[in-house]
Amino acid sequence: MALDLQPLNLPGIDPVRPLLIAGPCSAETEEQVMTTANALHDAGCRIFRAGIWKPRTRPGGFEGNGIAALPWLRRVHEELDMLTATEVATADHVRAALDYGVDILWIGARTAVDPFAVQSVANALEGEDIPVLVKNPVNPEIDLWQGALERVNMAGIRRLGAIHRGFSYYERNIYRNLPMWHIPVELKKREPELPLFCDPSHIGGKRELIAPLCQHAMDLGMDGLIVESHCNPESAWSDAAQQVTPAALRAIVDSLDIVNLSGSE
Ligand code: PEP
Ligand code: MN
């Protein structure tokens, strides 16, 4: 079943490659959110990401500020005129994010594995017109990824995108999550109109890998990048090793060699 899609049509954002979404793994404090968002704005980024409900592998880590952080995202939108994006994993998350005017929602990799969870998020989205991005499930199962996109689409969300964040595996490797590039490439073959973002932060797991992963994603013709960026990465409350400063992100984006693939055919 082909998805019934419309362009993402993000207000105020030029649809040029790479569409850039950046911000901290987690919204930690209002000050950290505003400092990071200001620096990202100065660096030319107009779409701000921050997790407020954090699915942690083991208990005991920072699990996000929840609803308390939503006014901070609203401040980013109102004061900096940036679009905001956050992860939703339950119907309650969807309703709270919509109440506070979050501009873009995404479904995380740990939620995308569970059709019941995806369906309840999709049901909560019924009747809304908001862009939704769906990360690949942690396991390398393209049908499960496509199925999650279909569930959201069948709820009436037509401004959809997919995020490639790599796949979980057991053995040690340089990557935190194996890229298995053929999987997003196959998804794009199945759904050519579906915007595809790469999340080099969760694939690489370390700062040094962000630039080469971004370049690889661009070489494959991906549409956008979603990158974790923090005003003080070393002291981040989650995913410290993989976050870059807004200035470092700017340098990475400026260094990318973007070839227009359709023009070369
Ligand atoms: C995140 O984007 O911070 C996150 C939790 O990612 P993932 O769902 O890819 O693990
Ligand atoms: Mn993260």
Present the secondary structure layout.
Blueprint: E1 19-23, H1 30-42, E2 47-49, H2 70-80, E3 83-87, H3 91-99, E4 104-107, H4 109-112, H5 115-125, E5 132-135, H6 142-154, E6 160-164, H7 182-190, E7 196-198, H8 200-204, H9 210-219, E8 224-228, H10 246-255
Helix pairs in contact: 1-2, 3-5, 5-6
The structure holds phosphoenolpyruvate (PEP) and manganese (II) ion.
Q: Give the CATH superfamily.
A: Aldolase class I
Task: Look at the helices and sheets and give the structural class.
Answer: alpha/beta
- Quantity of strands, as a count: 8
Strand content: 5-15%
Number of domains: 1
- Helix and strand sequence: EHEHEHEHHEHEHEHHEH
Explain what this protein looks like in three dimensions.
The radius of gyration is 17 Å and the shape is globular. The chain has an eight-stranded parallel sheet with strand order 1-8-7-6-5-4-3-2. It is α/β, with parallel strands linked by helices. The protein starts with 18 loop residues before the first strand and ends in a 10-residue tail after the last helix. The model has no long low-confidence stretch (mean pLDDT 96). The protein is 36% helix and 13% strand. The chain binds phosphoenolpyruvate (PEP) and manganese (II) ion.
Brief descriptors of the model:
265 residues; TIM Barrel; binds phosphoenolpyruvate; alpha/beta; binds manganese (II) ion; eight-stranded parallel β-sheet
